[in-house]
Each structure stands twice: as structure tokens, then as C-alpha cells.
Amino acid sequence: PIPPLQVIRPEPCRVCGSRIRFGKTAIKCCQCQLLLHTKCREQCPSLCTPRPHHHAWPREGVLADFAPSTPPLVPTLVVQCVTEVETRGLTETGLYRVPGAEQLVREWKRKLLRAGGALPALSSVTDIHVVCGGPKVREGEGTASPLTPLPGAATDIPDEAASDTALRHVVSKLPPANRDTLAFLMLHLLKVSHSPDCKMDVLNLSRVFGPTLVGHSSANPTPLAIMEDTPRQCKVVARLLSLPPSFWRGFVETEQENLVPM
Fold first, then answer.
1. 202-213 vs 223-242: helix axis angle to the nearest 10?
2. CB-neighbour burial class of residue 221 (10 A; exposed 0-12, middle 13-18, buried 19+)
3. Domain-by-domain residue ranges, the chain?
4. DSSP state string for 135-167
5. What GO biological process, any one, is recorded here (predicted)?
6. Residue 11 in this model has a pLDDT that exceeds 60
7. Other CB atoms closer than 10 Å to residue 80's CB: what's the count?
8. Disulfide: which of 86, 147, 162, 210 matches 234 by Cβ 3.0-4.6 Å?
9. Closest CA to 51 of 28, 69, 77
10. Are 122 and 100 in contact (CB under 8 A)?
């Protein structure tokens, strides 16, 4: 039997023709890649024609190459990992700070990148800290591009209200996939910061995610530049997390049917 999968990229059911919406459960044939509602399984043809497997995502590229074609433009890998972390990780001390086994992180990350729009469940990954490696991936496997190449100027404005306005403007001008993914991650990290069991406040999370989310002052930073950039990266992420959840929800709650897991 084929286990049900969570659909991230909305696609039509090959049996009834209706769209399988974001976050819904579906069934995907491992031979012909046919996707259908679980309720349509009985009407599915018994014979299928195997199709050659193609990687759903490129090995490298900008974030938009990994994002779905319909809003919210959040890569499947990020949604799947965050959903799993919020399901069973919000009672773990040091979430995102405690590293998972590096070999296991690389192994399951490769599997996820090859899986396509409907990903296998991550419940088989025993150590939730291994799953936490997913949201900390940079743009494209193997690239050094940050998720949000945000300048730190907005955070240097002394007036807090003016700084918030400038920061919101910078976020809104990001490429849509980067903006939506950032919003999705900010809502998730706020939930982690509010969990007393995780013991990961905004400052701790900013230290962990600063290098991943925020770019450096130059394209090829020296070791000294990297060291000098670290406090700025931390400060930017902390300021992003200080923005109200309603601001971030405005980017990811674009369609009632496509709400991301909160």
C-alpha cells in the first residue's frame, strides 16, 4: 500500500480533476507519479505506466527555484521540516541550538531534495534535532546565498517606530519567495521563542539563524569580515522577530485554502 503524503504544491487530482489544496493529504504512485485524493483511490486505474524520475528541484539556485508556483511561495522542504518540528519539537530544550548528527542531516536532506512536491513523512527521523537542520539550509543546496540579503541600515535608525517602518519596507521589497519564506520562518521562530521548554529566546534564535538568514557586507567576505558581520546579522534577525506576527501573516495567508501550518 502507498502511504498518504502531505501535498505542498497544489496540483489537480488525476482521477476527479479537482485541485488538491495546500497541506491536504494525497496519494502518489511511486511508479507513474500519479497524484490523487485519498478518497479517489478506489477509482484509480489498476495499471500505470512508469515514468522516468526527475529531480523536482535543482541542486543549486535561488530560492524561487525551490518554491511552488502558487502562494505562499515557501519551499516544500521548509514547510515539511517546520511542520514536523512544531508537531514534536516544541518541548525539546535547545531546539535549533543543539545540533543533530551531521551525517544524518546530510542523508535525509538529500532524500527530501529528491522527493518532489509530495514529501515522505519525517516521523521516521527519530532525532528532532536532525530535522531542525532543514530550516537552517541556505538558498539552494551548495550555494552560499543568504535567504534574506537584508542591509542592517534599517536596524541602525535610533527611533524605534521609524526603524520598524524601514524594516517592513525592506522586507516587502524582497523577492516574493524570499519574503514568504522569511515570513513563514519568523512565525515559526516566534512560536519556538514562546515555548518555555525550548529555552530559546529571541536572542538565542538570532544567534543561530543570523548567518543563515542575513547576508555579509561583501560577496566574498574574509574571516575578519565574517567575524565582524556576526553581531549585525544577529541584530537584524532580532529586529525581524520583534515585528508583530500580524505583519508576517500578511505574506503567507494569501489564500484561505493555502494557509501554512501555524
1. 130
2. middle
3. 4-43, 63-253
4. TT--SSTT----SB---SGGGG-SSHHHHHHHH
5. Rho protein signal transduction
6. yes
7. 23
8. 210
9. 28
10. no
Q: Are 113 and 53 in contact (CB under 8 A)?
A: no
Q: In sequence order, which ranges of the chain are alpha helices (DSSP H)?
A: 76-88, 102-115, 128-131, 160-172, 176-193, 202-213, 223-242, 245-252
C-alpha torsion sign, points 179, 185, 191, 195: negative
pLDDT reported for residue 9: 61
Beta bridge partners, 214, equal 148
Cβ pair 76, 23 in contact under 8 A: no
The tens digit of pLDDT for each residue in 78-115 reads: 888 899 999 999 999 999 999 888 788 777 767 766 66
Contacts of 76 (CB under 8 A, 6+ apart): 8, 9, 56, 66, 68, 112, 115, 116, 117, 119
Least confident of 14-18, 203-207, 238-242: 14-18
- Do 4-43 and 63-253 share a fold? no
- Domain covering 4-43 assigned CATH 3.30.60.20 in the classification: yes
Residue closest to 119 by CA, chosen among 89, 81, 91:
81
Q: What is the mean pLDDT of residues 122-150?
A: 68
d(C-alpha 215, C-alpha 136), whole Å: 14
Instruction: Return the exposure string of 82-96: e unless at least 16 CB atoms fall within 10 Å of the residue's CB, then b.
Output: bbbbeeebbebeebb
Largest CA distance in the chain: 67
For residue 202, the model assigns a pLDDT of 97
Q: All 3 cell numbers of residue 245?
A: 506576527
CATH 1.10.555.10 fits 63-253, yes or no: yes
